[in-house]
Amino acid sequence: MISINDLVVQSKKATRDGFGVGLLEAAKLNSNIVALTADLLGSLKMDDFKKEFPHRFYQMGIAEANMMGVAAGMSISGLIPYTGTFANFSTGRVYDQIRQSIAYSHKNVKICASHAGLTLGEDGATHQILEDIGMMRMLPGMTVIVPCDAHQTKQATLAIAQHYGPVYLRFGRPAWPVFTESVPFEIGKAQLLNEGNDVTLIATGHMVWNSIEAIKSLAAEGISCDLLNIHTIKPLDEEAILRSVGKTKCVVTSEEHQIYGGLGDAVAGLLSRNLPVPQEYVAVNDSFGESGKPDELLIKYGLSPSDIVKAVKKVLSRKI
Fold it and tell me: What would the CATH number be for the domain defined by 11-178?
């Protein structure tokens, strides 16, 4: 029996820290990897890469659209560009360039996006993009990955170097529990972190840990949960989801994203075609964020462990 009790929290680190470590390690393994940033070297944790490989690092300034175009051009020569800036500027500001220059021709560009979601915190609504997963998963051929902790972000950063084609890798700013060091990572393969019979919890990014906290509370009430970490939103691990939901007959999805267009809708689309069951969403309900402390924002916008508990009880009341 797989249980969250087997997961050991060694430390707290920002997922962006895992990206910086993974980028340097990937570059040591593959000389074709280059890194570009839009004036956010420190925020993207690219410092060590620049020190180790100064001739493979490109500071593009506050010119994100140009950075995407340059990355697309570099990929034609066989290089593997990793672009780095905030998630808002990696998507909303440059969507046309990504669609036309990268996705349309299936360029081998890795779009690495930090400071995503509400947990960006004090920088406020203008930077807290909550629409990016939906935007990127709609692009044909785009792989979309949202790791849940620093270790998994490192694993994903290494894995995308071996994957040919455009990738959107989304990660965050705050220190967060690291708990997947014993869990293998594979692009497109969900991770079953807990087994139960009553309800399926499907989460991504920071919300995986909040789901773990919710499971502890639910267990005290006699409610057992399957927990799937869907780190790869696209391609979605349909087999794992259908297997779990086929057992529990209801599902709660959790994401640090708008209620529209993200993980919840991806799961709902799959289930509506194959296995219609009650589903509840834990996500931002059609709202922009605001400036504040990450944990306080998660509570205010309905993304706390207690909100997951409420969603579980609601979906169980609808279960046939």
Answer: 3.40.50.970
